[in-house]
């Protein structure tokens, strides 16, 4: 009888220890990612149009600040300019961005798909759209007409 009582005691003790260890491991699993994310710096800057941006990466050639957070606040200087113009104290000239033409094969494939979609939309048959979750939604009335107009506008502009 005494042996059974001792065995039950060790059995209960083992379950308690396992529960404590599991709780500690789960706690560490939830705390570790949070603490590593809070150690990461968040950068903020205001562009020429007055829009304030936030990012995990600092912008290039733009003054920025590190956002005050759990890791403490720090002001960051703008990145040092590179090149020979930087030695004279002037910022190097930013090259002009040119808009590139889209890949003709991609445009052709999208035009073909748009024409197919337009033909299907114009048919007097029930149509179903799927949202981001994959749930079906019937396409009717005004929304169907909007999609027809949007598809026609796309075809007029690109095809």
Please tell me about this protein's structure.
This protein has 159 residues and is mainly α. The chain is 47% helix and 11% strand. The chain has three helices and five strands. The strands form two sheets. A three-stranded antiparallel beta sheet has the order 2-1-3, with no helix packed on it. The protein has a two-stranded antiparallel sheet with strand order 4-5. Strand 4 (127-130) and strand 5 form a beta hairpin. Helix 2 (104-122) runs antiparallel to helix 3. The longest helix is centred in the first third of the chain and has 37 residues, at 2-38. The chain is flat and about 85 Å long. The relative contact order is 0.06. The mean pLDDT is 74.
Q: Compute the average pLDDT.
A: 74
Structural class of the secondary structure composition? mainly alpha
Biggest sheet strand order reads 2-1-3
Q: Can you count the helices?
A: 3
List low-confidence stretches: none
Query: First CA to last CA: what distance?
Result: 90 Å
Shape: flat
The profile of the biggest β sheet is: 3 strands, antiparallel
Give me the secondary-structure topology:
Layout lengths: L1 H37 L4 E4 L5 E4 L9 E2 L37 H19 L4 E4 L5 E4 L1 H18 L1
Helix pairs in contact: 2-3
Quickly describe the structure.
The protein is mainly alpha-helical and 159 residues long. The protein has three helices and five strands, in the order H-E-E-E-H-E-E-H.
Task: Name some characteristics of this structure.
159 residues, mainly alpha, 3-stranded antiparallel β-sheet, 3 helices, 47% helix
């Amino acid at each position: 009888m005494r042996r059974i009582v001792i065995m039950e005691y060790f059995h209960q003790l083992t379950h308690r220890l396992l529960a404590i260890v599991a709780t500690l491991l789960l706690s560490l699993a939830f705390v570790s990612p949070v603490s590593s994310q809070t150690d990461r710096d968040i950068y903020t800057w205001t562009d020429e149009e007055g829009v304030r941006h936030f990012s995990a990466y600092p912008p290039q050639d733009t003054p920025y600040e590190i956002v005050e957070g759990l890791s403490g606040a720090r002001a960051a200087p703008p990145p040092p300019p590179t090149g020979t113009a930087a030695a004279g104290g002037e910022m190097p000239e930013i090259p002009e961005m040119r808009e590139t033409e889209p890949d003709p094969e991609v445009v052709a494939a999208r035009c073909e798909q748009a024409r197919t979609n337009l033909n299907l939309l114009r048919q007097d048959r029930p149509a179903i759209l799927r949202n981001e979750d994959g749930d079906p939604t019937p396409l009717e009335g005004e929304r169907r007409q909007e999609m027809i107009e949007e598809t026609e506008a796309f075809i007029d502009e690109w095809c």
